[in-house]
Amino acid sequence: MSVVRRCSRTACRQPAVVTLTYVYADSTAVLGPLAAYAEPHCYDLCATHAERLTAPRGWEVVRLPAESSGAGPGSDDLEALADAVREAARPPAAESPVGQGVETNRRGHLRVVKSEARRHDQPHETREPPESPSGHPPARPGRES
User: Fold this and answer.
1) Which DSSP string do the residues of 124-137 spell out, in sequence order?
2) What span, in angstroms and rounded, lies between the C-alpha atoms of 47 and 69?
């Protein structure tokens, strides 16, 4: 016995032909082939509602071509597409932090960390503590001299 999935729109009894998925991070609505399984975060739509679908201002609608494999749902590529859109929107991974140290000693919750040797082609940055007009180092915040 084959159960026909219906359109998700209220009061619509037409059979579903496409699946709508929202990618909120990218402000994108993806309208593609009917997913193999009904999922709670996807919406199945009939041909009429799929044709009339609009997105809010600032959102993009991506319409994938329907598979022409005959009756029944096609392959579930919609989730893979949504994942690909999320991956493309993700910011590039930052390079590994510079100056990672190696733990050399430990006493209780305190650790002695030795930094890696600096390469000769890297400039060495030195910072002098700021001095007050009187020539003395500034007082720590919250303390008055």
Assistant:
1) PP--PPP--TTSSP
2) 17
